[in-house]
Structures are given as C-alpha cells and as structure tokens.
Write a structure and sequence with these properties.
There is one protein chain. The protein folds into two domains: 62 residues, Beta Barrel (Thrombin, subunit H); 96 residues, CarD-like, C-terminal domain (Methane Monooxygenase Hydroxylase, Chain G, domain 1), CATH 1.20.58.1290. Helices cover 40% and strands 18% of the residues. α4 packs parallel to α6. The chain is elongated.
C-alpha cells in the first residue's frame, strides 16, 4: 500500500506533460512552371532584346483582373522583363533556333555581302529592323553585310554600332544553342566570315557591293 501511495504522489508531475505537437506544414500551391509551350529556366529569344531566360511565371492583379506573366531576365543587359503569357505570339517571343537554322545562319555569313544602292539612313533602318526581328538568319545577313576585314576600309561609327549590335545578338543565340561561351561563338562567326568572298562590284538582283561610307 505504501508503495502505491508513493507512485500516486509522483504521478501529477507526469500528468501535466503534453506531447510535442507535430509542426503544422502549410500546403503551398505549386508554382506554375509551364505556359504556352515555354517553361521556367528556359532560354528564349525576345525580338527587341535577344536571348533571355525565363526565371519564373507569376500572377499579378491589375484593375481587379489576374494577369499571368513570364518573368524574363537578360543578365548581360542587367534587365528584367515581364511579358503577359497570353501575348507572347503578338510580341514575337520564340524558342532558341534549332541547330539546322543556326547552321543556315553561319552559312549565310559566308555569302557575298549585299548592299543596296540607297541612302545610308534607309539602309540603317533596314538593318535595325532585321536586328530587332528576332530572325537569326536575318541578323546574320546584317553581320555579313557590315563586316569589314583588315584589308577593307574602316566602318563609320554608325555602321560599327549596328554591326556590333547584330554580332552580339547572333553570338548570344549561337552560344545558348551550342552551349559554348560567347567568345567561342564570336570566333565561330568570324571564321565563317573569313571564308566569304571579298567585296566586289558584281551586282546581284538590283543590289550591288559598294564601299561607300555611312553618312
């Protein structure tokens, strides 16, 4: 009897102990990772900015309406762009070019430069339109037409600007497709350009190769 009383005397201390509750884990809604055939972490081409990467797909409320957006970063330009998922077709956003298209672009670089006999201002507008078209073959045409070897006259400032813009767009996409550095991509581009014919006076479909300087 004595032993039972002692046990009863100790029991209240244990009675107040409570089991540690399991931590409550809130069920999070899984983030959207794919829309319109594009997915997060994928590299894409945005016509007016070149190659970027989709880092997330987020929702924002604008005027009481939910808007779903691709969040795209352009690391080299230190820029982030938010594009409504429903408008990617209208803005011309596309996937990276397939290897055969990249090969076609590199073959284009080996062709003869075609420069129209028009005012530089008009040609500059055409070059800029090609650069911002997002078409890798059209961009390679700009690189080809504005390229100058060491034996040729130097480019004017405006020519040089357009050439470098086209070269940058082309090298970034080749780099992303072939998974090489931009420096390696530029070397590949320059190697293709070096295989092209020297500029000459031979006309081609109303176009001619000229050595005039941009105004």
């Amino acid at each position: 009897m004595t032993s039972k009383k002692k046990t009863a005397a100790r029991s209240p201390q244990r009675a107040i102990e409570r089991p540690i509750p399991e931590p409550v884990v809130e069920k999070s809604i899984p983030k959207t990772t794919q829309r319109q055939g594009f997915k997060t972490n994928e590299f894409i081409v945005y016509p007016t900015h070149g190659v970027g990467q989709i880092v997330s797909i987020e929702e924002q409320e604008v005027a009481g309406h939910k808007l779903e957006l691709f969040v795209i970063t352009f690391v080299k330009d230190k820029m982030t762009l938010r594009v409504p998922t429903a408008k990617i077709a209208s803005v011309g956003m596309r996937k990276l070019a397939e290897p055969p298209i990249v090969k076609k672009a590199l073959e284009t670089l080996k062709g003869r430069a075609r420069v129209k006999r028009t005012m530089w201002s008009r040609r500059a507008q055409e070059y800029e339109a090609k650069i911002n078209s997002g078409d890798i073959v059209a961009i390679s045409e700009v690189v080809r037409d504005l390229y100058r070897s060491e034996q040729q006259p130097e480019q004017s400032y405006s020519e040089r600007q357009l050439y470098e813009a086209a070269l940058d767009r082309l090298s970034r996409e080749i780099s992303a497709v072939q998974r090489i550095t931009e420096t390696e991509a530029i070397k590949e581009i320059e190697a293709a350009l070096a295989k092209g014919p020297r500029r000459g006076p031979k006309p081609d479909d109303g176009e001619a190769v000229v050595e005039d300087e941009a105004a």
